[in-house]
């Protein structure tokens, strides 16, 4: 007897039953819940485990001071809505201004933060984060922060090592949206990250690095950018920028 039609029909019925059963089972399952967003100015469980510490808790600038004195410059920096805001010059008392630096100095570190440009700021926003900064001076290696959509000279654009080395790309969000930055220093090796992408890597003291210094405005500084340690500096360059969720991990070589 030819059983092929029967076997074929049986297989079809079996597959249909399995499919319907699976669909019914899936229909009874609760949909997976999306992970809640990370609360600004807090550490995730993974960051706590990895050894990160907050440099800003959303309410206080206790980890920062003025560049050349303990007192922070009045009027240039305010804490508002969980943000460190560098105010526009036209909203400050006359003569107010100045960058702020961390009270601690760092050698090997993984520094992460978010920044946002003020959409209502008049003119170009120009700021930066300096690291291995010279104590008492507004001088150091600088992760350049500049208006995202501006075409400016090489080595002065967003994520560049200011006046020294250009970033290979700049995947930035427009004004009014937050961007994530990561600066990693391990011995002489340094990385710049922007919104999850590594955009620049260099070695302090290398032939290429010293060649870039020799062609820059820092050429007369002895071994510029090669200090063993230094504070982190938030640059005041006229305002229009806000920071939040600043955290750092001190690492071993």
Question: Could you explain the architecture of this structure?
Answer:
Strands 1, 3, 4, 6, 9, 10, 11 and 13 form an 8-stranded antiparallel beta sheet that branches. The protein has 3 helices and 13 strands. Helix content is about 15%, strand content about 30%. The protein starts with a helix and ends with a strand. It has 2 domains: about 30 residues; about 210 residues, Exo-inulinase, domain 1 (Jelly Rolls). It has about 250 residues and is an alpha+beta fold. Strand 10 and strand 11 form a beta hairpin.
Gap from first CA to last CA: 78 Å
For the largest beta-sheet, the strand count, sense and barrel status come to: 8 strands, antiparallel
The computed structural class is alpha+beta
Radius of gyration: 26 Å
Overall average residue pLDDT: 88
CATH topology of the largest domain: Jelly Rolls
Q: How many β strands by DSSP?
A: 13
**Structural domain tally:** 2
Estimate percent helicity.
10-25%
CATH class of the largest domain: Mainly Beta
Identify the quaternary structure here.
single chain
CATH superfamily of the largest domain, by name, is Exo-inulinase, domain 1
Total DSSP helices: 3
Order of helices and strands: HHEEEEEEEEEEEHEE
Keywords:
single chain; eight-stranded antiparallel beta sheet; globular
Brief account:
15% of the residues lie in helices and 28% in strands. With 253 residues, the chain is α+β, with helices and mostly antiparallel strands.
What are the SSEs and their pairings?
Blueprint (H helix, E strand, L loop, with lengths): L3 H24 L17 H6 L2 E2 L9 E3 L10 E4 L2 E4 L13 E3 L6 E9 L8 E6 L9 E6 L32 E8 L2 E6 L2 E7 L3 H8 L18 E2 L6 E10 L3
Antiparallel strand pairs: 1-13, 2-5, 3-4, 4-13, 5-12, 6-9, 6-13, 7-8, 7-12, 9-10, 10-11
């Amino acid at each position: 007897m030819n059983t092929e039609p029967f076997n074929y029909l049986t297989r079809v019925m079996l597959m249909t039953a399995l499919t319907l059963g699976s669909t019914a089972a899936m229909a009874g399952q609760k949909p997976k819940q999306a992970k809640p967003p990370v609360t600004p100015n807090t550490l995730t469980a993974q960051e706590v485990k990895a050894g990160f510490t907050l440099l800003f808790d959303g309410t206080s600038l206790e980890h920062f001071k003025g560049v050349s004195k303990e007192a922070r410059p009045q009027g240039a920096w305010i804490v508002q809505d969980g943000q460190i805001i560098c105010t526009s010059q036209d909203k400050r008392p006359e003569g107010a201004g100045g960058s702020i630096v961390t009270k601690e100095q760092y050698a090997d570190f993984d520094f992460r933060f978010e920044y946002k440009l003020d959409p209502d700021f008049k003119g170009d926003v120009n700021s930066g984060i300096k690291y291995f900064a010279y104590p008492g001076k507004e001088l150091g290696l600088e992760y350049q922060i500049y208006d995202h959509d501006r075409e400016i000279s090489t080595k002065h654009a967003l994520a560049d090592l200011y006046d020294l080395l250009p970033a290979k790309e700049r995947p930035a969000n427009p004004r009014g949206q937050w961007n994530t930055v990561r600066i990693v220093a391990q011995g002489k090796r340094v990385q710049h990250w922007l919104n999850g992408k590594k955009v620049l890597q260099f070695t302090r003291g290398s032939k290429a690095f010293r060649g870039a210094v020799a062609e820059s405005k820092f050429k007369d500084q002895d071994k510029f950018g090669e200090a063993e340690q230094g504070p982190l500096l938030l640059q005041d360059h006229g305002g229009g920028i806000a920071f939040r969720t600043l955290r750092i991990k001190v690492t071993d070589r």
